């Protein structure tokens, strides 16, 4: 059974010219890129997307970061797309992400961790609606 995941290259990844390299990793893994779009996200969308973190002390900084420039939003599809995308992406903190993962290879710190990937199929559906169907 095929599944869809929402993946987003964050503004630091776009600014640093990593879109092509990162997209190619998803393709080499065997995931299909159904949509891929450069977009600016509003503070309102950022607040909804990261709503589960609104009580964290870094929430405003997170909204600043994710709206600091264009992102590259994607829908990838394939078998267990959510789990497979998360394994390509690696743990939240790049300092703890192993080499070979996207965060491990391209990031230094949790405040700029290059990429987002949905953490469940249900959240993937919600994020695809939020970013692509508004
Ligand atoms: P995830 O992105 O790996 O699913 P979450 O815990 O959902 O991790 O956090 C969402 C995003 O919030 C992270 O990707 C990162 O950009 C940011 N973040 C998480 N923890 C911190 C922190 O301690 N300081 C600053 N930003 C953080």
3D architecture notes:
The protein has about 130 residues and is an alpha+beta fold. It has a single domain (about 1-40, about 70-130), classed as Nucleoside diphosphate kinase-like domain (Alpha-Beta Plaits), CATH 3.30.70. The protein is built from seven helices and four strands; from the N terminus they run βααβααβααβα. The protein has helices at about 10-15, 20-30, 45-50, 60-65, 80-90, 100-105, 120-130; strands at about 1-10, 30-40, 70-80, 115. It has a four-stranded antiparallel sheet with strand order 2-3-1-4, with helices on both faces. The protein is globular and about 35 Å long. The relative contact order is 0.26. The mean pLDDT is about 100. Bound molecules: inosine-5'-diphosphate. Inosine-5'-diphosphate binds next to loops. The site of inosine-5'-diphosphate has 9 residues, from loops.
Second CATH tier, the architecture: 2-Layer Sandwich
**CATH fold group:** Alpha-Beta Plaits
Instruction: List the ligand species.
Output: inosine-5'-diphosphate
> What's the Cα radius of gyration?
14 Å
| Main sheet makeup | 4 strands, antiparallel
Low-confidence stretches: none
Classify the beta-strand content into a percent band: 15-25%
Helix and strand composition category = alpha+beta
Enumerate the strands of the largest sheet in spatial order, edge to edge or round the barrel: 2-3-1-4
Query: Can you write the helix and strand succession as a string?
Result: EHHEHHEHHEH
Oligomer: single chain
């Amino acid at each position: 059974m095929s599944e869809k995941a929402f993946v987003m290259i964050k503004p630091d990844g776009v600014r640093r010219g990593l879109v092509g390299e990162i997209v190619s990793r998803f393709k080499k893994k065997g995931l299909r890129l159904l949509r891929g779009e450069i977009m600016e996200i509003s503070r309102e969308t950022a607040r909804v997307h990261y709503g589960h973190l609104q009580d964290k002390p870094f929430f405003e900084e997170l909204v600043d970061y994710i709206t600091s420039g264009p992102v590259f939003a994607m829908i990838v599809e394939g078998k267990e797309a959510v789990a497979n995308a998360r394994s390509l992406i690696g743990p939240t903190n790049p300092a703890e992400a192993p080499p070979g993962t996207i965060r491990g290879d391209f990031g230094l710190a949790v405040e700029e961790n290059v990429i987002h990937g949905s953490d469940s199929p249900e959240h993937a559906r919600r994020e695809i609606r939020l970013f692509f169907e508004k």
